[in-house]
Amino acid sequence: RQAGGVRTIVLNNPRRRNALSLPMLQSLRRDLLHDVKSRELRVIVIAAEGPVFCSGHDLKELSSEDDVKHHSQVFELCAEVMTLIQKLPVPVIAKVNGLATAAGCQLVASCDIAVASEKSQFATPGVNIGLFCSTPAVALGRSLPRKVALEMLFTGEPLSAQEALMHGLVSKVVPEDRLEEETMKISQKICESSKSVLALGKATFYRQITQDLDTAYKMTTKVMVDNLTLRDGQEGIEAFVQKRKPVWSH
């Protein structure tokens, strides 16, 4: 559903613990990409029904009854969705209320922002069933200190919401009854900014984060100059000088 610039995508298969089955991944990709360049879309929130945010892959799809080609399709589509989140021109917020495990934990780590309720937990327990969480480790290793990520991966033990906050896996932890309010507060604040400026900023952030310091500063210096050539870049500065509220063209 979408209202006021905010699109909310709800994982809605609580009977299967919102597992990232092929149909779920295909649906998630479709809903993330739908009319994504529209001026009306400013923020995407990924939420879930039921006590489990997402349990990761549907293990029934990974049994020996299916061949290697099918298994490859599952993991390749999952990787595509996770990387897509960072390539989208709008911020993506994970709204977590419950357990996020394996690829579900990967989904949270892949989002730009994550707001969690106090009862939420995060784990990569694949090692306990003989399937090491190697693809979740990509997102986890880029969100957490290495030793924290590896302890999660080696033991399968969960992080509490507060531990996830302390180590940087989530942005904010709130009581369950304030989760919707806090997520919307962040979303609405983002909606006050120019979509074109945010799109440029998000893309630049993910480009520079993998570069060495000198390369990152060289690249971002050029981006700052490019930002000034945007209509909204000029509008924002003029509005500040004139002490008025900017009128964004997006």
Report on this model:
The strands form two sheets. A six-stranded mixed beta sheet has the order 1-2-3-5-7-10, sandwiched between helices. Strands 4-6-8-9 form a four-stranded mixed beta sheet. β1 and β2 form a beta hairpin. The model has no long low-confidence stretch (mean pLDDT 96). It starts with a strand and ends in a 9-residue tail after the last helix. The longest helix has 20 residues, at 68-87. It contains ten helices and ten strands. α1 runs parallel beside α2 and α2 packs parallel to α3. The chain is globular and about 65 Å long. By secondary structure, the chain is α/β, with parallel strands linked by helices. It has two domains: 2-191, 2-enoyl-CoA Hydratase, Chain A, domain 1; 194-242, Lyase 2-enoyl-coa Hydratase, Chain  A, domain 2, CATH 1.10.12.
